[in-house]
Design brief:
two-stranded antiparallel sheet; mainly beta; 12% helix; six-stranded antiparallel beta sheet; 99 residues
């Protein structure tokens, strides 16, 4: 998996987590054509033009979005990510702020 970018799909990354040695992945996305893609990263992001919305981005190895869910609170997004995709609360990393 490549290094987490500062922005995903134009939205600033607030928190992220990715697969580790003890987790093989967060699942797969299955497409209508029969292909599939492994979910290896999750990111909580916010677009600069919408300060009220938080997005949970479900990402592949290249931090490309393969699914998303909108929230109003960061904690709600993290709770759902843990419930839907597993992992550990301690696995979430807060993004460094710009200086």
């Amino acid at each position: 998996m490549i290094k987490i970018p500062k922005k995903i799909d134009g939205a600033r990354v607030l928190f992220h987590t990715c697969v580790s040695d003890d987790i093989d992945g967060f699942g797969t996305v299955n497409y209508m054509d029969g292909s599939h893609e492994k979910i290896t990263g999750l990111a909580i992001c916010r677009y600069s033009n919408n300060k009220k919305a938080i997005f949970l981005f479900v990402c592949n190895d290249n931090w490309e979005v393969v699914g998303d869910i909108q929230y109003q609170e960061v904690n709600d997004a993290i709770e759902d990510a843990l419930r839907f995709y597993g992992g550990s609360p301690s696995g979430w990393v807060k993004a460094k702020k710009k200086k």
